């Protein structure tokens, strides 16, 4: 059965509400701009939360805009920089599903089309309102015959389209939920990467904090193998808020505690701690999910670094208490999690592999014994998988291998790589 993906634009495909942003551009020099901004934002939220009909909200907002074609050009430039992070990194999905992806929005084609077509979305699959202009290019209204300008417009549109297959809806607002309520779509995913509207989220089939999460649970192609919102980052001690903000922006699930408790460490994929609150070597033995530790200060002992290394856990520390460690540590951890880079680690061999486009990256950490690389390559050879880049570094404890391959693979390949004797950790990056 065919599958179709109905995706909202404002606060979903982009991080912002476009009409709100247009108001900030068009009313920049208006003496009452702050008051009007507040009115427009309240009208937007009232509509998105189901407290005001979409028709009433749209009509009132367009009247307040005082915008023209020149303002729209500025808005388009702005919106292209505001595409939601998890959408922008999954261009491959849109390229592979051009016929099945539809942008359905109560916004306007004049600013939506230039933004989404850069992501392989077809013009004929963009459904939105259109402005009406006067001879000087001023916005004086919109096409009221368009079903998307009316209350329940998305439901009306889908009835007209009569798509032959399963339909999944992704959005942040009440008008997106109405598709589910109408029975016309199989599942509604409340998209919360930019804003979470409680009245919408509590009615959704699934809350998706990122587009990666949506692709993951539906087993669809994606830029990263595992959604970051599913990786817990345990934070203990005095860790700067700026460092945590970086990790939250990246999508990690932040969990703050007063001390390192075993049950929380065992669930964590990343640990951030200060110099006074470091894990014991014994605690690391049971932290099977832990991949990286960022210490905001000096590592407590050589033994801690060695035990972490033996268990495939990388450590980045800051022995000189650099005043910029709130920036340094998160960036090093993210470079490891995203690219496999180990540079400046205090316990792993140094490797800074270049990113290879159109390739899958796999990381294999194993005990430093002879013959492991040959076994890894034998798995790829038996499955006719071409290696486009391979990097191996070692220290006395471990071998660290990054392999980039340019073809797809089945789970059997991954299982065989994990099963190689002396394997400590195996990870698929993207």
UniProtKB/TrEMBL annotation:
<keyword id="KW-0460">Magnesium</keyword>
<keyword id="KW-0028">Amino-acid biosynthesis</keyword>
<dbReference type="InterPro" id="IPR023214">
    <property type="entry name" value="HAD_sf"/>
</dbReference>
<dbReference type="InterPro" id="IPR054480">
    <property type="entry name" value="AHAS_small-like_ACT"/>
</dbReference>
<dbReference type="Pfam" id="PF12710">
    <property type="entry name" value="HAD"/>
</dbReference>
<keyword id="KW-0378">Hydrolase</keyword>
<dbReference type="InterPro" id="IPR050582">
    <property type="entry name" value="HAD-like_SerB"/>
</dbReference>
<keyword id="KW-0479">Metal-binding</keyword>
<dbReference type="GO" id="GO:0000287">
    <property type="term" value="F:magnesium ion binding"/>
</dbReference>
<dbReference type="InterPro" id="IPR045865">
    <property type="entry name" value="ACT-like_dom_sf"/>
</dbReference>
<feature type="domain" description="ACT">
    <location>
        <begin position="361"/>
        <end position="430"/>
    </location>
</feature>
<dbReference type="GO" id="GO:0006564">
    <property type="term" value="P:L-serine biosynthetic process"/>
</dbReference>
<protein>
    <recommendedName>
        <fullName>phosphoserine phosphatase</fullName>
        <ecNumber>3.1.3.3</ecNumber>
    </recommendedName>
</protein>
<keyword id="KW-0718">Serine biosynthesis</keyword>
<feature type="coiled-coil region">
    <location>
        <begin position="55"/>
        <end position="82"/>
    </location>
</feature>
<dbReference type="InterPro" id="IPR036412">
    <property type="entry name" value="HAD-like_sf"/>
</dbReference>
<dbReference type="Pfam" id="PF22629">
    <property type="entry name" value="ACT_AHAS_ss"/>
</dbReference>
<dbReference type="GO" id="GO:0005737">
    <property type="term" value="C:cytoplasm"/>
</dbReference>
<dbReference type="InterPro" id="IPR002912">
    <property type="entry name" value="ACT_dom"/>
</dbReference>
<comment type="pathway">
    <text>Amino-acid biosynthesis; L-serine biosynthesis; L-serine from 3-phospho-D-glycerate: step 3/3.</text>
</comment>
<keyword id="KW-0175">Coiled coil</keyword>
<dbReference type="GO" id="GO:0036424">
    <property type="term" value="F:L-phosphoserine phosphatase activity"/>
</dbReference>
């Amino acid at each position: 059965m065919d599958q179709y993906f109905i995706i909202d634009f404002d606060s979903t495909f982009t991080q912002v509400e476009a009409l709100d942003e247009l108001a900030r551009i068009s009313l920049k020099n208006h003496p009452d701009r702050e008051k009007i901004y507040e009115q427009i934002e309240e009208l937007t939220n009232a509509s998105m939360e189901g407290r005001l009909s979409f028709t009433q909200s749209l009509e009132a907002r367009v009247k307040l805009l005082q915008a023209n074609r020149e303002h729209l050009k500025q808005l388009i430039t702005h919106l292209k920089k505001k595409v939601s992070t998890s959408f922008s990194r999954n261009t491959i999905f849109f390229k592979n599903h051009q016929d099945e992806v539809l942008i359905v929005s109560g916004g306007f084609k004049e600013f939506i089309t230039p933004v989404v077509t850069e992501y392989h979305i077809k013009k004929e699959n963009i459904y939105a309102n259109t402005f009406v202009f006067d001879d000087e290019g001023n916005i004086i209204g919109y096409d009221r015959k368009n079903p998307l300008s009316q209350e329940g417009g998305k439901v009306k549109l889908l009835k007209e389209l009569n798509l032959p297959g399963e339909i999944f809806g992704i959005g942040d607002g009440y008008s997106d939920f109405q598709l589910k309520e109408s029975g016309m779509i199989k599942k509604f995913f409340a998209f919360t990467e930019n804003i979470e509207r409680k009245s919408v989220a509590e009615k959704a089939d699934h809350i998706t904090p990122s587009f990666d999460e949506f692709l993951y649970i539906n087993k669809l192609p994606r830029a990263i193998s595992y959604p970051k919102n599913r990786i817990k980052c345990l934070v203990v001690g005095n860790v700067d808020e700026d460092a945590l903000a970086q990790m939250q922006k990246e999508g990690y699930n932040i969990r703050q505690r007063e001390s390192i408790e075993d049950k929380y460490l065992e669930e964590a994929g990343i640990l951030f701690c200060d110099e006074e609150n470091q894990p014991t070597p014994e605690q690391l033995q049971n932290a099977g999910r832990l991949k990286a530790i960022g210490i905001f200060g000096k590592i407590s002992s050589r033994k801690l670094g060695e035990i972490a290394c033996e268990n495939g856990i990388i450590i980045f520390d800051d022995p000189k208490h650099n005043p910029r460690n709130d920036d340094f540590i998160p960036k090093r951890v993210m470079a490891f999690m995203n690219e496999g880079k180990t540079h400046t680690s205090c316990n792993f061999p140094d490797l800074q592999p270049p990113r290879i486009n159109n390739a899958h990256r796999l990381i294999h950490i194993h005990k430093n014994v002879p013959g492991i690389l040959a076994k890894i390559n034998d798995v790829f050879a038996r499955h006719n998988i071409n290696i486009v880049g391979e990097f191996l570094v070692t220290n006395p404890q471990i071998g660290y291998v990054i392999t980039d391959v340019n073809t797809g693979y089945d789970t059997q390949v991954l299982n065989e790589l994990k099963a190689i004797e002396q394997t400590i950790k195996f990870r698929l990056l993207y």
